[in-house]
Amino acid sequence: MEAETRIADLFSLYSAFPLLASASFGDDSLASSGSSGSLSLTIDSFSTEPVLLQKAFDSIFCDNESSWEAAQNVSRNSREEDGLANTTSLGYGEILPEAVFTIMGEIKEVHGLERGGVVYDLGSGSGRVLFAACLAHDFRLSKGIEYIESLHNAALRNLNRWKKHDVVTPEDGGPVDRVQFDFVQGDITKITTFTLSPAPTVVFCHATLFDNDLFACVQLISENSPPGTFFVMITKPLRTGLVTGIETLSYKQYRMSWGHATVYLQRRMKPIE
Ligand SMILES: C[S@@+](CC[C@H](N)C(=O)[O-])C[C@H]1O[C@@H](n2cnc3c(N)ncnc32)[C@H](O)[C@@H]1O
């Protein structure tokens, strides 16, 4: 039943948005293996049109358990059980996928982004930011670091949803390697020498509730990142200037799961050529 619903969703998606996806979904494998079958979702061109990407996102994360509301509950229950309810930095809220698509569109169209690359989310929650980013660009690696174990597990369950769809992302003629996801349960403040490895291309950080010590670690991570690395900072911008080597490219208000917030698109400065 669940598989039938998904097929119906994708049928309407493909017929409504023929540019988004070619009709190469694995009907046969689905028919033979039921809801555990894979369903290919081939994105022909990385559309920078948020509405189209939202449709694709919704077709993968279509059940209640994969919603941001569910992730928020997972986080709240976990913090209450572990006596962490008053640890402000662990508060939960999400950037909505549409904002991720728009920001990725700006990075690609205004500033330029080569194929491949590595995207991070520092405090990755249920992983939805990384899945949205990987619909908008063909990253080769997508890495999330999340402190709360139950949220980390929610990200792994979302990864299973993604894998069921067998997302293929051809661009410039021909399929590219599928993106690899690496969700790590860990602490941002414990990242060795505050250096992300492998080197990042784009880093998301929803720092709204991060305390000063945690944010100082994010600042160090940014300053240790290669020139040209993009930072998508929610609410709290990185310190800019010649000393930090960080510049602000733009800032704009976006809708979050919890209200509106300013998103700062920043970059590690490139040397003058
Ligand atoms: C506001 S939520 C953002 C969730 C997701 N990145 C998004 O924007 O949709 C911040 C996340 O950072 C996590 N977090 C807070 N402190 C952390 C730390 N020291 N190490 C890793 N994750 C942390 C929280 O548990 C929470 O899931």
Quick structural summary:
This protein is an alpha/beta fold. It is built from eight helices and ten strands.
Could you name the key traits of this structure?
alpha/beta; Rossmann fold; 20% strand; seven-stranded mixed sheet; 273 residues; binds S-adenosylmethionine; disordered N terminus; three-stranded mixed sheet
Structure write-up:
This protein has 273 residues and is of the alpha/beta class. It has one domain (64-165, 173-268): 3-Layer(aba) Sandwich (Rossmann fold). Helices cover 37% and strands 20% of the residues. The protein contains 8 helices and 10 strands. The chain has helices at residues 2-16, 27-33, 50-60, 68-81, 97-111, 128-136, 149-165, 212-223, and strands at residues 21-22, 41-43, 118-122, 141-146, 167-168, 180-185, 202-206, 230-234, 246-256, 259-268. Strands 6-4-3-7-8-10-9 form a 7-stranded mixed β-sheet. A 3-stranded mixed β-sheet has the order 1-2-5. A hairpin with a 2-residue loop joins strand 9 (246-256) and strand 10. Helix 3 packs across helix 6 (128-136) and helix 4 (68-81) packs antiparallel against helix 7. The longest helix has 17 residues, at 149-165. The N and C termini lie far apart (58 Å).
How would the blueprint of this fold be written?
Blueprint (H helix, E strand, L loop, with lengths): L1 H15 L4 E2 L4 H7 L7 E3 L6 H11 L7 H14 L15 H15 L6 E5 L5 H9 L4 E6 L2 H17 L1 E2 L11 E6 L16 E5 L5 H12 L6 E5 L11 E11 L2 E10 L5
Parallel strand pairs: 2-5, 3-4, 3-7, 4-6, 7-8
Antiparallel strand pairs: 1-2, 8-10, 9-10
The structure holds S-adenosylmethionine (SAM).
